[in-house]
Amino acid sequence: MRMLIIEDERGLAAAIADGLASEGFVVEAAYDGVDGLWRALHEPHDVIVLDIMLPGLSGYEVLKRMRAANVWTPVLMLTAKDGEYDEADALDLGADDYLSKPFSYVVLVAHLRALLRRGAPPRPTVLAANDLTLDPARRRCRRGNHEIDLTAREFTLLEFLLRRAGQVVSKTEILTHVWDENFDGDTNIVEVYVGYLRRKIDAPFDRRTIETVRGAGYRLRS
Fold first, then answer.
1. 127-220 in CATH: which number?
2. Residue 154 CB-density burial (10 A; 0-12 exposed, 13-18 middle, 19+ buried)
3. Does residue 121 have a cis bond before it (omega within 30 degrees)?
4. What is the pLDDT of residues 53-76, one digit of tens each?
5. Is the pLDDT of residue 86 over 80?
6. Domain 2-117 CATH assignment equals 3.40.50.2300
7. Beta strand pairing status for 2-6 and 210-213?
């Protein structure tokens, strides 16, 4: 999933990005409120981590302008320790959740997963298409009673397709959310990884879950 972190403490932003990459997130960072707001308004993200104290524009102002522009990307606000007024203000302005500094990395991941599940429209804890299930929190994939071992990239790709089950998604959309918008390699990497998934989730079970829509992209049958 694609995440934006708006945080002026570059060390903290880098540590979060490094950790979340292993969880299947594609993370980009902005280090001030002005750049962060621009990215939030003009680039696609599944979740945003937003600090309150930022140069340029405060996190409050970034959030207020996002919601005024009808950008409803789930936002996790980072607040000061014991800052109950910060938390109240963040929620009043349209934040979906908050986390006080300092925080546990494990708790951060749990909060982000919860936001992704209950975004708009509401998302289930376990994603499913017929007997194919994916549990993002436990990093488990199953076909019926059979456990399927996926790499981190395969898992992220399948999660993206399951969250958009029944919809046609283009290669560009997949690259943006599963890889990176600045990816400059061979776009056939998408076909390669779709092939990997098909060999793991479909071929052994005589299924055809992921369809190729000629000239448009891919669709996961719901």
1. 1.10.10.10
2. buried
3. yes
4. 999 999 999 998 888 787 888 999
5. no
6. yes
7. unpaired
